[in-house]
Amino acid sequence: MSIQIPRGTQDILPGEVEKWQYVEEVAKTLCYNYQYKEIRTPIFEASELFTRGVGDTTDIVQKEMYMFEDRGGRSLALRPEGTASVVRSFVGNKMFGHPNQPTKLFYSGPMFRYERPQAGRYRQFVQFGVEALGSEDPAIDAEVISLAMGIYKKLGLTQLKLVINSLGDAGSRNAHREALINHFKPRIDEFCGDCQNRLEKNPLRILDCKKDRDHELMSTAPSILDYLNDESKQYFEKVQKHLSGMDVEFTVDPTLVRGLDYYNHTAFEIMSDAEGFGAITTLCGGGRYNGLVEMIGGPETPGIGFAFSIERLLSALEAEGVELPIEQGVECFIVSLGDDAKDYAVKLLHNLRAAGISSEKDYLDRKVKGQFKAADRYEAKYVAVIGDNELQENKINLKDMATGEQEEVSLDQLVDNVKSKLGK
Ligand code: AMP
After folding, report:
1. What residues does 149 pair with on adjacent strands?
2. What pLDDT tens digit does each residue of the chain (424 aa) get?
3. Are 335 and 398 in contact (CB under 8 A)?
4. Ligand 1 atom 13: residue of nearest CA
5. What spacing in Å lies between the alpha carbon of 60 and ligand 1's midpoint?
6. Residue 147 sits in the same domain as residue 261
7. Whose CA is nearest to atom 7 of ligand 1?
8. What is the domain range of residue 58?
9. What's the superkingdom here (predicted)?
């Protein structure tokens, strides 16, 4: 029996993988433009990093982590998200001591969550994310949000909705927390088991519950915006002012709470409004996490970041019908006939490639017609045709496949000729 691919994972095949490369490249280029530098961290970490960093009341830690014991008896987890690892590295490598602050980093790589697989939800998915550590300036919040929007816009997405909220500082959160407990407590037995557990530990997350989202107490729950103290209010206003100044459109949604425990002040999500995108419309989520660095053993350092998956980004591009400008075709295909010409084609192909021209030839001993068909399948821009006679006369026939024009070129000038035609 053949072995099946694990549930919730996918192979990314040639033809599709170029789209991944393209979007990752656009995102990376924009990050460098904003002065965010790449960081690569391990795919597995001590499980404790996530129980501490993501929070042990979260679904991720309680239900979704791939945990295992290694041969040395250590409890390890495949990373379910990127922020905790980046913060661990920030602390371990004492990046806070570097003169350039804030520390601005981005990452891209596979994350793992044992979730119920469905459209837009995988067990292995690739997250692209950024983190800015060491600044509490609302301008950084606006910068991070505008960077996320900038990546999507640069790729051609237009049907986007940016939603922001403030969760306030510790004081505001505590006041809101009390209000939430008082609101839900009298009727908590009407809620699911998860919500009952969350009531005392983290009542904010009740608002995020998928099972109970239609319960009447949800829509009447106290809004965090009514509990923001003056400082938190001013902070949130400043973020909004900066976003407006950058012409980044947004709406404020006081019910937006993020799934992870460590957020405060700014929280945001970017959704796709495109028809046919599917039930899960969130493309990107992020927010401020002052306090996380301390929780992971570092000095008090504010931070903010976002993460999005390439899987959902590509579905949004498809839903909006955006064609990425990906060149898949080969630049020059060599058609050869006759034994000497065939041997010569091997060397010629090597020379074309050495000159930076993407090139291919036949390896299946096809007839000339079959070789031309192959050149078509490879979407060749130019086809160079050589037979034993041409070889003796030191000539080769070059065909421009777009115009159909043909010319005879001296063999030793072929590489330069093709190169200049391609503008290389
Ligand atoms: P989170 O870390 O849960 O806030 O998720 C941030 C972003 O990661 C989401 O907005 C999605 O783009 C993406 N994401 C999270 N979980 C998955 C998943 N299981 N499959 C694909 N993408 C995901």
Report:
1. none
2. 799 999 999 999 999 999 999 999 999 999 999 999 999 999 999 999 999 888 777 788 888 999 999 999 999 999 999 999 999 999 999 999 999 999 999 999 999 999 999 989 999 999 999 999 999 999 999 999 999 999 999 999 999 999 999 999 888 888 998 999 999 999 999 999 988 988 888 888 888 788 888 899 998 999 999 999 999 999 999 999 999 999 999 999 988 876 566 688 999 999 998 887 877 789 999 999 988 999 999 999 999 999 999 999 999 999 999 999 998 899 999 999 999 999 999 999 999 999 999 999 999 999 999 999 999 999 999 999 999 999 999 999 999 999 999 999 999 999 999 999 999 8
3. no
4. 309
5. 11
6. yes
7. 308
8. 17-169+229-319
9. Bacteria
Bridge partners, 78 (sequence order): 44
The answer to whether residues 376 and 240 belong to one domain is: no
262 pocket-lining for ligand 1 (C-beta < 6 Å): no
122 domain-assigned: yes
Residue 312 CB–ligand 1 contact under 6 Å: yes
- The verdict on the CB of residue 307 being under 6 Å from ligand 1 is yes
Pocket lining: 283 vs ligand 1, CB cutoff 6 Å? yes
- Is residue 19 a contact partner of residue 326, using CB atoms and an 8 Å limit? yes
DSSP assignment of 14-41: TTTHHHHHHHHHHHHHHHHHTT-EE---
- Please tell me the distance between residue 125's alpha carbon and the centre of ligand 1 in angstroms: 8
Q: Does ligand 1 come within 6 angstroms of the Cβ of 285?
A: yes
Q: Which of 62, 257, 282, 288 to mutate to test the pocket of ligand 1 (most atoms within 8 A of CB)?
A: 282
Closest to 238 (Cα-Cα) out of 357, 140, 353: 140
Q: What is the CATH number of the domain that holds 395?
A: 3.40.50.800
**C-alpha of residue 268 to centroid of ligand 1, in Å:** 13
Domain shared by 98 and 48, yes or no = yes
Query: Maximum distance among all alpha carbons in the chain?
Result: 95
Whether cis (ω within 30° of 0) applies to the bond prior to 42 is no
257 and 370 assigned to the same domain: no
Going by CA atoms, what residue is nearest to atom 17 of ligand 1? Answer: 121
Residues in the chain: 424
**Closest to 148 (Cα-Cα) out of 159, 162, 167:** 162
Ligand 1 neighbourhood includes 47 CB (under 6 angstroms): no
Q: With respect to residue 142, please indicate whether it lies within any of the assigned structural domains.
A: yes
Strand partners for 109: 127
7 located within any domain: no
Query: Are residues 75 and 148 part of one domain?
Result: yes
**CA pseudo-torsion sign 307, 156, 253, 230:** positive
> Could you tell me the pTM of the whole model?
0.91
Q: Rounded to the nearest whole angstrom, what is the distance from the C-alpha of residue 65 to the centroid of ligand 1?
A: 14
